Amino acid sequence: MIKADLHMHSTASDGVYAPDELMKRAVGLGFTHVALTDHDSVAGIPLARETAEKLGMTLTNGVELSCGAQKEIHVLGYGFDPDNEALRAFCEERVAQREARTAAMVQRLCELGKPIDMARVRELARGVMGRPHVARAMLEAGYVLSVSEAFDRYLKPGRPAYVPKEDVKVSEAVRLIDQAGGIAVLAHPMELKMGDTMLESLIGEWKGQGLAGVEVYHPSAQNNHASFLLHLAQRENMLVTGGSDFHGEAVRRTEIGEGLDRWRTMESDMHALLERIRITQQAR
Question: What confidence tens digit (pLDDT) does each residue in 156-185 have?
Answer without folding.
Answer: 989 999 998 888 999 999 999 999 999 999
